[in-house]
Amino acid sequence: MTTQLYDFGMIGLGVMGRNFLLNVADHGFSALGLDKDDEKAKLLEQEAEGRIIKGATETHEFVALLKTPRVIMLLVPAGKVVDIVIEDLLPHLDEGDLIIDGGNSFFEDTNRREKYLNEKGLRFLGVGVSGGSKGARFGPSIMPGGDPIAYELVRPVFEAVAAKVAQEPCVAYLGNTSSGNYVKMVHNGIEYGLMQLIAETYDVLKRVGGLTNRQLHTVFSNWNEGKLQSFLIEITAQIFAYADEFSEGELVDAILDKAKQKGTGKWTSQNSMDLGVAIPTVDAAVAMRGISALKEQRQQIEDF
After folding, report:
1. How far apart, in Å, are the Cα atoms of 132 and each of 103, 141, 167, 188, 210?
2. Which residues are catalytic?
3. Closest alpha carbon to 112 in 150, 155, 74, 80
4. Residues near 287 by beta carbon (within 8 Å), at least 6 away in sequence
5. Domain spanning 184-302: which superfamily?
6. pLDDT tens, 80-94?
7. Angle, helix 179-203 to helix 280-292, in steps of 10 degrees
8. Which CATH class, in words, describes the domain spanning 8-177?
9. CA–CA separation, 72 vs 100, rounded Å?
10. Is the dihedral of CA 201, 207, 210, 214 positive or negative?
């Protein structure tokens, strides 16, 4: 009996990784996922619904089931975890295999990892993925950077799964080394600024203008029909009309005004300062994100 070999491998079967892999399988590629958490591997197979997908929990089994040269994408938290996963993979890989980091990694880390893996005869790409879990499932924007020959190994998959605008896939090879992660970093920094502008606009309309959530929904929906049309304006309009299923009113009023950050906005500000490029909107947005995280301290000040 012939063993099924898979076209595309994914390490990290959280919501992003699982959704991306289901998207891959939707487009005719056989897909294999690895996660040390047995429940996540089982959940992937439960959601497969006839697609050619398998979940694995052991690295040696995962690598053995991939077609060569192997194409393996990582969707794990940026930082030390990426290096740990790479080291776990190395003993099982062959020359010419490709590792893709799809997380929000710092671009200098991508440069270091590419050099390290190239010296071992392995290929590496740093790839930005935008669109959140829904985008991963139905069409993300993808920003690959690294060796152009390595990109050709995964280009058919990325072009198939990416979001489409006027039938064109939202993916393009962006350049050598860490170009993809750098563009994703700047993309996220700009998004920080846009989100801060939306938040301040909401605050003025609600506190000064006295608009209700229903009125805010109408205003943002109208804006999304004109020059301000964008994904962020669209989902902002939607949240104002989203009912709170645990109480009366809308969910937006029950959301804690406290935000986390993964570092991309901060890196954008830091790098702009290194380059002598002024980006005050992004800088202010990063500062406001940091202040928002200090909920307890802000509450104490408000109580005076």
Report:
1. 11, 10, 21, 12, 32
2. 184, 191
3. 80
4. none
5. N-(1-d-carboxylethyl)-l-norvaline Dehydrogenase; domain 2 (1.10.1040.10)
6. 999 999 999 999 999
7. 70
8. alpha beta
9. 6
10. positive
